[in-house]
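Entry 14. Two folds queued back to back today. First construct below, sequence then structure tokens.
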Amino acid sequence: MSFQVKDGATYAPTSNAEPVCRPGEFHFASCFLNHGHIYGQTNGLRDAGGTLKWVYDPDQSRVDAFVAKYPGVKVARSFDEVLADPEIKLINGAAIPCDRAAIGQQTLAAGKHYFTDKAPFTTMEQLAEARAAVRRTGLRWFVYYSERLHNDAAWQAGEIIRSGALGRVLQVLNLAPHRLNAPSRPAWFFDKKCYGGILTDIGSHQVEQFLTYAGCADATVNFARSENFNNPAHPGLEDFGELSLSGDNGASFYGRVDWFTPGGQSVWGDGRTFVVGTQGSLELRKYTDIARSSPASRLFLTDGNREQEIDCLGKTGFPFFGRLIRDLLDGTDTAMSQAHVFKAAELTLRAQALADAARERS
């Protein structure tokens, strides 16, 4: 297992997962390569046994870089060429966030499933149209919530919680600093109409984790805030956000997201999660164990009997991707329910709207 740790935009783990299908049984295409997460998405699907057949992007330089990473992939002349291929079961994409919903609509209309980077939507209207398309076609619209799906400690935390080791989850706290690295960012990164706001974007990871760990089907947004504290040269950037939720089962959530990872830190963000239950607690150090080891993926579990430090790095194989492939081949629903996918997006959009309204009043 390996991943790059200096810049979150190029975070792309690999694993030695056992393939869940035969070679050539599950063909997919990677299209619209605007965000570096496309490499993590592609790695996850290939590691699980998926066959990468096509790549498409209107920018030849992005295609060339992708082909250098995955030799043998076919280069499509147009997106329509990919959509017309009956072998392709899934379109894997990381377009500019505001464009992701329209690409999903094209994908489902062509009879194929869709797997997009987060955030999947930048408006509530896009979400409503996606829900309608899924109902109409019966196809799936998956989202790459990588901070849980492609992180060993975050995945293992879910397994521990499901085992009952913590009892009933009462509260989840997520801290998610990121490295800005402004010179490397494309222009759309600083345009709020393109990325949707910091809560819509990286906040979506945090909400998805809360729903998973606390076992919530829905939640209420209590508080939300987004700011540009320290980047006057980029007025469209929100560099700080926070939100509070109450789950439909009574669980509490607080999340903070920001672009203030210090230059001296060895990783792109010291992501931490704290989970409190009636019988135990967890701390997750997802990417680094500051001043001790980096990269790292560690859990600290305390229950009624003992304290444990658990090294998770390279231990899980990232099962989500194999489950996704088998779900689409078998018609099952084991990877992530469609209701969960859309609810995480809905709550982040609601939180962003609340934060936007507060800023307009101030």
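Second construct, same run, same settings:
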Amino acid sequence: MVASPISAPRSAALKELVERGYFEQASDVEALDRNLEQGMVTAYIGYDPTARSLHVGNLLTIMALRVLQRHGHRPICLIGAGTALVGDPSGRSETRRLMTTEQIAENATSFRSQLERFLHFDRGVENDAFMLNNADWLGQLGYLEFLRDIGRHFTVNRMIAAKTYRDRLEAELPLSFLEFNYQLLQAYDFWHLYHKHGCTLQMGGSDQWGNMIAGVELIRRSSAHSRATGTGTGTDAVQSLTCPLLTTPDGRKMGKTERGAVWLDPRKMAPFEYYQYWINSDDSMTGRLLRLFTELPLDEITALTDVTGAALREAKNRLAFETTELLHGRDAATQAQTASKQAFGGGGDWSAVSCVEIDTATIKLIELVAHPSIAAFKSKRDARQRIESGAVRLNGAACADPNHLIRVGDCGEQGLRLQAGKRNRFRVRLTG
């Protein structure tokens, strides 16, 4: 199935998705536009619980669901505890590490509170979002019945033509039979949600296009079979819509830093660090990020970003504040903003800066700034040069000795104040 082109949308929801940059392609844009205009559409996005927190890479699709809900449509957040037992091969050159059911269940429980920052769940209105877990139905499937009732609608020829599988095969990289089943399971999720919850739209990142279209085709083929045998009516109403994968100007996936993922859970990333992530984003992306990750009016975004040089700093400040407020609330955003101004304007309150604990009794300064939980510079060589040039400060004083030894007693109750370069600021506590 080839994606249909976009023209001028009639529905307010699709218009906003397009204008703000959430729309990349859809299986049938005209039908989707018509459905969104005629009444409430139920749409779902799946999130595999492979970590204890969602991250900024997930945020674009969460914001897209938020747009739909604001226009009266109903989101389903599908926790992929069942498919996580298989592992999504999309965008990967090697098999994912398999997780235990206990790990998956623990991760899944933390997602609800993060999603509630962006979607309303229990207001008693028709378009309340709700969360489902695909382990509830995938775990009940009988293998023979699944092959007979679902597998019969797929051909191996078509499946290996999908980019995910084709890339692995062409590179002569392993593709396990377990992973080969992933597309069928995701297609079945859509089939199940369509029949049980009236879900007619699946959304996701562009790397999911093949899996999403498999779901559309499964519903249509099984419906056609039902019509032919007199056991059902079928429909052509189901659609898939992909959001663009957001990358930085140097081609990296948005939502990654040198220290790892940008998490939505404040226990994994403090509001101050989250604020700093947006402040430090590339200037050239400011307008796009404001459209995607804030709800500022488009004309205001244009006015904010129709500038260059130092004047763009105000737009970056608005980006950081608005994104932090959406996730953590106004008080946390205000505190992060104040701490940021104090940190990078000289002196200030360090209370909003997260504390990094390192399990050692002593550590050299160069090892500290290169530690995985800090990773302040690109490499150890770069770290040495920056230290020697005076770019690192301990408790406010410059330290130009890469071999300077830091001990437990140097950290105090509140932690050693470490500033590495202009943008990296930590409180460090040694626990060895």
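Quick look at the second one. Residues 83 and 172 are 24 Å apart (CA to CA). Residues 91-95, 225-235 have pLDDT under 50 and may be disordered.
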